[in-house]
């Protein structure tokens, strides 16, 4: 890897997709993200922003894939991240899929039993096969700086 490649910022090496969603307190909802096209990327990560979980809440995040955007999405083996109310209030759950076997992925959040607040979902595509990458249309601004000096922002 060259010196220039090591100095690249994350802005040039990943794309944040605005397929995020928000769920108020609820007990029996399933929320599914928009389909994310992984073409040209080696990995995809979902960050689930978790709010308050009631003590008996049963909540999870899982990944699904399909070879077309409108097809039938199947769960990916062993990709469920389970959330526990006692320790996961106001935290972030992360689920990464490296080299998915099919082109399109969705992320699904399931809630059962008791209230669970979901503050949002952020999807990050990374390790592009070709770069630099262009920001998704839902991103309002993006900058990257290497060793900036002191001064007015």
Helix content: under 10%
CATH architecture: Sandwich
What form results from the Cα inertia axes?
Answer: globular
Uncertain residue ranges: none
Strand content: 35-45%
How many distinct folded domains? Answer: 1
In the CATH hierarchy, what is the class? Answer: Mainly Beta
Measured on Cα atoms, how large is the radius of gyration?
17 Å
Instruction: Provide the succession of SSEs.
Output: HHEEEEEEEHEEE
Structure description:
With 153 residues, the chain is mostly beta strands. It has one domain (16-128): Sandwich (Jelly Rolls). 8% of the residues lie in helices and 42% in strands. The strands form 2 sheets. Strands 2, 3, 5, 6, 7 and 9 form a 6-stranded antiparallel sheet that branches. Strands 1-10-4-8 form a 4-stranded antiparallel sheet. The mean pLDDT is 82.
List the helices and strands and how they pair.
Blueprint: H1 3-6, H2 10-13, E1 14-17, E2 30-32, E3 36-37, E4 41-53, E5 58-66, E6 74-75, E7 81-83, H3 85-88, E8 92-98, E9 104-112, E10 116-128
Antiparallel strand pairs: 1-10, 2-9, 3-9, 4-8, 4-10, 5-6, 5-7, 5-9
């Amino acid at each position: 890897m060259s010196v220039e490649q090591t100095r690249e910022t994350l802005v040039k090496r990943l794309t944040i997709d605005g397929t995020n969603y928000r769920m108020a307190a609820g007990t029996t909802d399933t929320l599914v993200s928009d389909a994310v096209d992984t073409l040209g990327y080696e990995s995809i990560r979902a960050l689930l922003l978790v709010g308050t979980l009631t003590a008996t809440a049963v909540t999870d995040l899982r990944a699904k894939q399909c070879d077309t955007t409108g097809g039938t999405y199947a769960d990916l083996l062993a990709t469920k991240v389970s959330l526990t109310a006692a320790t996961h209030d106001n935290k972030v759950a992360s689920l990464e899929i490296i080299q998915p076997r099919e082109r399109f992925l969705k992320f699904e959040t399931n809630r059962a039993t008791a209230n669970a607040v979901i503050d949002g979902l952020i999807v990050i595509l990374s390790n592009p096969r070709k770069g630099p990458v262009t920001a998704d249309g839902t991103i309002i601004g993006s900058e990257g700086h290497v060793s900036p000096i002191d001064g007015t922002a």
